Amino acid sequence: MDAKSQTPAVNLPPVYSLIARHEVFPEVSHDETARYNFLANLNRHLATYISPGNKIAFDKRVQPNFVAEHGRDFQTRDEVKEAMKQDPHYQSWAALRRSTMEMRQQGGRSMTLRQAEDLAKKVANLNAKSPETLILDPNLKTPYYLSIMDNHCMPGSYHTELFEGDVSNAANYDSGLFVTSGGMLGKYTDGGGKAIASWVLSNAPDFKPKRILDIGCGIGHNTLPLATAFPDAEVIGLDTGGPMLKYGHARAVALGIKNVKFMQINAENLSMFENESFDWVQTTMFLHETSSKAMVNIGNEIFRILKPNGLSLHIEQPQYTAEMPLYEQFIRDWDAFYNNEPFWGAMHDVDMNDWMISTGFKRENLLQFGARSINDNEDHTKPKAPEVEDHGRSAIWNVFGAWKK
Ligand SMILES: C[S@@+](CC[C@H](N)C(=O)[O-])C[C@H]1O[C@@H](n2cnc3c(N)ncnc32)[C@H](O)[C@@H]1O
Fold first, then answer.
1. How far is the CA of 61 from the centre of ligand 1 (A)?
2. Which of 157, 240, 288 has the most ligand 1 atoms within 8 A of CB, as the residue to mutate?
3. Quick one: angle between helices 168-180 and 30-45, nearest 10?
4. Which residue in 136, 195, 290, 372 could disulfide with 294, CB within 3.0 to 4.6 Å?
5. Residue nearest to atom 11 of ligand 1 (CA)
6. Probe ligand 1: pick from 247, 262, 289, 344, max atoms within 8 Å of CB?
7. Closest Cα partner for 8 from 280, 376, 266, 386?
8. How far apart are CA 152 and CA 174, in angstroms?
9. 240 Cβ inside 6 Å of ligand 1
10. Quick check: CB of 221 below 6 Å from ligand 1?
11. Residue 248 pLDDT exceeds 70
12. Nearest ligand 1 atom to alpha carbon 151
């Protein structure tokens, strides 16, 4: 604490007990809570005190050594990666960052597996109360870009069911995102959805969407804020992950949100939806998990199903541009190599304006803006330390999109 200003030296993550519970939220024991608190704080410690040392190592050692050896500066972020991989400070930070993710996944996995049958029963009971708003397709094939690895080290990824009706992975996802994000996404981990709903309400007050599609909705963390902000709209969340949808639907029923439907569909083929049938198509932290080919298909489908004067928005971490220093590109790209996000780098290299225009949007109707999580865990009455950039993890996003005019 700075004695004069009372400003803390670091903003500590909120305690895990602040997370909002609902009927299908897993039971978290005292020790499991302590483990999650430890990991959230370790993540914050790494971002605040250890990660800045990577830049110092780059400036003081890695770059000068490279220039001395090669007679020129770095030309690609891959060259930066190969050189930084030899640096002991970077090695320590990267190993710890990877370990916190593995520990968080294993902590959530053991917690949800010990109660997997209870969770499955609770979810089935809630889903039976509103069967018409959960449309599953047990024959849907999981796209290869989701099945070839465990996304962000989550064992079994989004699609695995260990027994009929198992939702333990989805419950793990729900309970553990608080740890990775340091609680910055709010009590219901919905700060992104709230931020985008708030942007639309203030920037397009005359826009009254009747049908909203949230592609890659997961368990609906960021879908439900859209349904709440636009209570007269029909909101559809779609995903390929059956367990995510079962859990997400039960969560929505438990939270009393009625204008939302969950559907198991691959976003690359939306032929069940007619041309021009949605007012708003949203994706949140989704595109980076798909392949380059899938992005083309998904982009074309979004444009096709959007009504004239409709809106499409995409929330992601910032794209890599020619103006972004190679060091920053390299550090932001860490997840691609060490957090099982193999499409992360390729997606962040795409020029999103070109992508949107290639699907049919006009350049003059493109949008781009920043969004910050609306975080109800924050205590706005207390002084805050300056914010720390946790590259690739911050609850501050780049939003791009377009009106279809
Ligand atoms: C990182 S999660 C984001 C979930 C959610 N949007 C959120 O903000 O919490 C990405 C989700 O996209 C889904 N997904 C990936 N590719 C998909 C595809 N082709 N069609 C439908 N869903 C897909 C995954 O199953 C996963 O649930």
1. 40
2. 240
3. 40
4. 290
5. 216
6. 289
7. 386
8. 14
9. yes
10. yes
11. yes
12. 1
Residue 374 structure tokens: 């609306």
- Compute the mean pLDDT over every residue in the chain, rounded to the nearest whole number: 95
Q: Whose CA is nearest to atom 12 of ligand 1?
A: 216
In this prediction the pTM is 0.96
Please work out whether the CB of residue 57 comes within 6 Å of at least one atom of ligand 1: no
Report the nearest-CA residue for atom 4 of ligand 1: 218
CA angle 223, 315, 135 (to 5 degrees): 30
* Edge-to-edge order in the sheet of strand 396-403: 134-135, 260-264, 234-239, 211-215, 278-284, 306-316, 396-403, 366-372
Ligand 1 neighbour 284 (Cβ under 6 A)? yes
Residue 302 contacts residue 333 (beta carbons within 8 Å): no
Closest residue by Cα to residue 35 from 153, 184, 175: 175
- pLDDT at position 183 is 87
Domain edges within the chain: 16-130+151-170, 182-403
pLDDT tens per residue, range 84-130: 999 999 999 999 999 999 999 999 999 999 999 999 999 999 999 99
CB atoms within 10 A of CB 364: 8
Instruction: Give CA–CA dist 78/85, Å, rounded.
Output: 10
* 268 close to 297: Cβ distance less than 8 angstroms: yes
- pLDDT of amino acid 114: 97
Class of domain 182-403: alpha beta
Q: What is the reported pLDDT for 220?
A: 98
How remote is the CA of residue 220 from the centroid of ligand 1, in Å?
10
Name the β-bridge partners of 281.
213, 312
Crossing angle of helices 88-113/116-128, nearest 10°? 70
**Distance (Å) of CA 303 to CA 119, 276, 404:** 38, 8, 8
**In this structure, what are the phi and psi dihedrals at residue 389, rounded to the nearest 5 degrees?**
-85, 115
Q: Which token pair is 33?
A: 């809570």
- Angstrom CA distances, 91 to 70, 82, 95, stand at 23, 12, 6
As to burial, measured by CB atoms within 10 angstroms (0-12 exposed, 13-18 middle, 19+ buried), residue 147 is middle
Rounded CA-CA distance 33/16 in Å is 6
